[in-house]
C-alpha cells in the first residue's frame, strides 16, 4: 500500500527548539525566478500561503481555486493539495506545527480553529496590507532572532488570525454554530473523523468518543452545517478515497482496505453512489 507523499518542514527551514517547528519564507525566495509546480501531496504541518501578488491554480482536497492577488490559503495537516504558482508571485509562505502554535486561551483557540477550517480567503487590497504587515513582522522576528522572538511570533500569529477571520468575504464557509460549546464539539468531531475514518464509521462510536448521545451529536452537526453525522462520515470516507485514488497508484482494492472495507465490491458501490463514478472511472476522469 503506497502512501500519499508527505512533505515535512526540513531542518534547513525550521526553527529547531523545544518550541516546535516553524518556518516563514519570502515567496520570491521560494520561486527563485521560476514557476512552481507541486503535484498532489500533503503536509504534517499547517501551511499558510499569503500572496500579495499571485497567479496560478491551487487545488485543496479537490476544490480548485484560481490564485489571485491579495489571497490567503490555509491548509491543515493531512489535507491533499496541488499548487501551480507563477514566477512573479510575491508574498509569504509560513509553516508550523501544533507544538509551536496552539493557543491556550479558549477564545483565541476557537478563533484559530475557525481560521484553520477555512482554506481560502481573498480580501480587499487595502485590508490585505494589514495582514501583510503582520507577516512582515513575523518574518523579521524569525530572521533576526532577537530576545523573545518566539513569543513575538506567536503574538503576531494571534493578530494575523483575528484579521483573517474579520476580513473573510465568504463567512458561510466557516461553520456557523449556535454557541461556543456547539462549535467546539463540532470541531472535535471533524478532527476525530480525519483521524479515525479508516476504522470507525458508526455514529455511536463518535458520540461515545465525545461523551454524547447520537441524538445530541446529530443536533450539533445539524445546527453547525445542516447535515447529519452520517452525512459527514460518508463525506470523509469519499474524501479519503479520492485522496488515495489520485495521489497514489494504489489499486482500488488497496484503497478499500485502507478505508476498512474487506468487500471491495461494496466499497465500489458506495463510492459510485456518492460520486456518480466508479473509483477507476473517477481516477481516469481526473487524470
What can you tell me about this protein's structure?
The protein is an alpha+beta fold and 287 residues long. It folds into 2 domains: 6-173, Regulatory protein AraC (Jelly Rolls); 180-286, Homeodomain-like (Arc Repressor Mutant, subunit A, Orthogonal Bundle), CATH 1.10.10. The chain is built from 11 helices and 10 strands. The protein has helices at residues 27-31, 106-116, 125-144, 149-166, 180-196, 203-209, 214-225, 229-247, 252-258, 264-275, 279-286; strands at residues 6-7, 22-26, 36-43, 46-53, 56-60, 63-67, 71-75, 80-85, 90-96, 120-122. The strands form 2 sheets. A 5-stranded mixed sheet has the order 1-3-8-5-6. The chain has a 5-stranded antiparallel sheet with strand order 2-9-4-7-10. Strand 5 (56-60) and strand 6 form a beta hairpin. The chain is globular. Mean pLDDT is 88; it is low at 169-178. GO terms for molecular function: DNA-binding transcription factor activity; sequence-specific DNA binding. Keywords: DNA-binding, Transcription, Transcription regulation. This is AraC family transcriptional regulator. Residues 187-285 form the HTH araC/xylS-type domain. It holds the Pfam family HTH_18.
Amino acid at each position: 500500500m503506497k502512501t500519499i507523499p508527505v512533505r515535512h518542514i526540513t531542518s534547513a527551514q525550521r526553527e529547531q527548539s523545544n518550541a516546535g517547528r516553524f518556518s516563514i519564507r519570502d515567496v520570491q525566495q521560494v520561486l527563485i525566478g521560476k514557476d512552481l509546480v507541486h503535484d498532489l501531496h500533503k503536509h504534517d504541518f499547517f501551511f499558510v500561503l499569503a500572496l500579495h501578488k499571485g497567479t496560478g491554480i491551487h487545488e485543496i482536497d479537490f476544490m480548485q481555486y484560481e490564485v489571485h492577488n491579495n489571497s490567503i490559503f490555509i491548509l491543515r495537516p493531512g489535507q491533499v493539495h496541488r499548487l501551480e504558482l507563477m514566477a512573479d508571485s510575491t508574498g509569504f509562505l509560513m509553516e508550523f506545527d501544533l507544538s509551536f502554535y496552539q493557543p491556550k486561551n479558549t477564545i483565541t483557540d476557537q478563533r484559530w480553529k475557525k481560521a484553520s477550517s477555512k482554506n481560502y480567503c481573498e480580501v480587499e487590497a487595502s485590508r490585505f496590507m494589514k495582514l501583510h504587515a503582520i507577516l512582515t513582522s513575523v518574518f523579521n522576528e524569525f530572521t533576526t532572532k532577537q530576545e523573545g522572538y518566539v513569543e513575538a511570533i506567536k503574538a503576531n500569529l494571534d493578530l494575523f488570525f483575528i484579521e483573517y477571520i474579520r476580513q473573510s468575504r465568504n463567512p458561510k464557509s466557516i461553520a456557523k454554530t449556535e454557541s461556543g460549546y456547539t462549535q467546539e464539539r463540532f470541531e472535535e468531531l471533524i478532527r476525530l473523523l480525519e483521524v479515525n475514518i479508516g476504522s470507525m464509521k458508526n455514529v455511536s462510536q463518535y458520540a461515545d468518543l465525545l461523551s454524547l448521545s447520537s441524538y445530541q451529536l446529530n443536533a450539533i452537526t445539524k445546527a453547525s452545517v445542516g447535515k447529519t453525522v452520517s452525512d459527514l462520515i460518508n463525506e470523509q470516507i469519499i474524501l479519503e478515497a479520492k485522496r488515495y485514488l489520485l495521489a497514489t497508484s494504489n489499486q482500488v482494492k488497496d484503497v478499500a482496505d485502507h478505508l476498512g472495507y474487506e468487500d471491495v465490491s461494496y466499497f465500489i458501490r458506495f463510492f459510485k453512489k456518492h460520486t456518480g463514478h466508479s473509483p477507476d472511472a473517477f481516477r481516469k476522469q481526473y487524470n
